[in-house]
Amino acid sequence: MTHDSRYDEATLASLKSDAEAIVARYPDRRSGLLPMLHLVQSVDGYVSRDGILFCAEFLGITPAEVSAVATFYTQYKRHPNGTYTVGVCTNTLCAIMGGDAIFDELSEHLGVGHDETTDDGAITLERVECNAACDYAPVMMVNWEFFDNQTPDSAKAVTDDLRAGKPVTPTRGAQHVCTFKQVSRVLAGFPDGLADEGGLAGAPTLAGLKLARENGWTAPAVPAAGAPEGESK
Amino acid sequence: MTTLTPVLTDTWDKERSWSLDTYLAAADGYTGLRKALTMPQGDIVAAVKDSGLRGRGGAGFPTGLKWSFLPPDDGKPRYLVVNADESEPGTCKDIPLIMASPHHLVEGVAITSVAINCHHAFIYVRGEVVHVYRRLLQAVQEAYDAGYLGKNVLGTGFDLEVTVHAGAGAYICGEETALLDSLEGLRGQPRLKPPFPAVEGLYARPTVVNNVESIASVPSIVRNGVDWFKSMGTERSTGMGLFSLSGHVTRPGQYEAPLGITLRELLDMAGGMREGHQIKFWTPGGSSTPMFSDKHLDIPLDYESVGAAKSMLGTRALQIFDETTCVVRATSRWMDFYAHESCGKCTPCREGTYWLKQVLRRIEDGGGVDADIDLMVDLCDNILGRAFCALGDGATSPVTSSIELFRDEYQAHIDNHGCPFDPVRSALFEYTPKAGALAGSAGGH
Prior knowledge:
The complex is a heterodimer of chains A (233) and B (445). With 233 residues, chain A is of the alpha+beta class. Chain A has helices at 9-23, 33-44, 49-59, 63-70, 92-110, 152-163, 180-187, 203-215, and strands spanning 84-89, 116-117, 123-128, 140-142, 145-147.
């Protein structure tokens, strides 16, 4: 390891062992860089200088090459992130359905703008782009868990609870929102055992299926077993 | 009347719908894989070709044909990469699919890998959906433990590793060659084509890149047969697909229907527009597909019919806006997105989206001048067909289509030096806009 790394020995050993597990998933070690950057965030809470040097050394590439990647993707933070990233979707559909108002009110409520962190270090506020939950608009993400069908009041209540250290439950996701560092470790590919939490899908996800059940609509019957392919209709 | 055809969604209301146990019990899970393992590889490819399945990720390229473009097997690695980087504005089908029932996808990955003789497949999931990633990681582990993946799949001697990879926030990685670069640990920027991924893809080896829903549809085709699949949809747009309704409708959500259903039929199922309002404009397949208006409700939502109406079926991301919505604001916000997500590699897209964003903001903010509309049309002409990848082309769609349909509304912004719409009316709740600012302009981007 480079002589100027400020990781202590125990941290470095655990980073190395996790990084080995990451690169083992790929035929080419370099493919491990994205998950390794998530791993760095799980330790440092952002992509730190030490993290960049670690990745470079471990993969045998230059720190500039690591930085080039780290600065390309919006989930990699270039300064210490809050314990919770609160992202309000302000892409067109969510914005129009109320996302703009939610962002504006949250911004005022928290006293921070886009990509800024509250003084207590609890919350980094962001505008996020479409998060593939448009049928639940307006949508807010907290550490990449879904908070669906938000209003300015519901969003403010979530952030108040987060800052007060109370457990907060997403509309669809784990039982409680994990910290930024914990979630970053999952994104590095290390399961946290919470996959079974959160239960069934929300109403919009099931809207069509519910209607089909009510009306007895099904996909076409499957041709009788043994019928040669290409003959039954 | 067209009715819904739950196939992929059929397990979603079952208890622990995401578990292997539920998939086995409720969907004859992995019987498609068992069958595929007894078939000659060419027959699996032929079945998917004959089924007419077309890429569900937007482009609509025939899936089986894509597989058949792989060069003859030279005994060295060939890869399957599933594109689960769902980020096109309005598109919200793959993410709920994986969350509710990841095994449809995992079985599809296994069958496709058998068909193309791939021994290491990758699923690239966008990073901003941690619970989806958890469920997929768990499903893959369950499939390993049950012998559907790993060494010697179901005792047949076929080996298959599956790696689930999380991205880190970049729309461009949904472009298949940018996705491959990203998966190789690089910045996600598109590659020059040719060579296409089928010839030189991941690690410069032959690679098939398919969308989640395409791959998840494969088990049903293998299990139920080509004719079963073709009994849904139209002649050239076969099968079922997830239609995602969002916006000012009474019951937004996922509606799995045969291709060729119309928005009028879907809206009926979704309880119509929100009470007291009428439809104004909508996208058939995400923001990159030219928008439609109330004149287009009866266009069959299949690849050919939507194409003939000068748009694209895309991802069936039906974003629906009522008469309270300012089309200039909508387009302006989409352009913020494209400018933000442009990877910077090519000039037409990087510069064009930047300038379109400035002009749209100026019009929305009341500073537009008469020449601005033609200026935007001209800018779009200089992007469309000249950008390095489809992102630039897609960025022009909302601009040119909204000008075509609502030119008067742009002119009204210019003539009246501001937006004639009240943003509060299109929101789902009452609020008092912050004074002196464009809606949502606080904080910067």
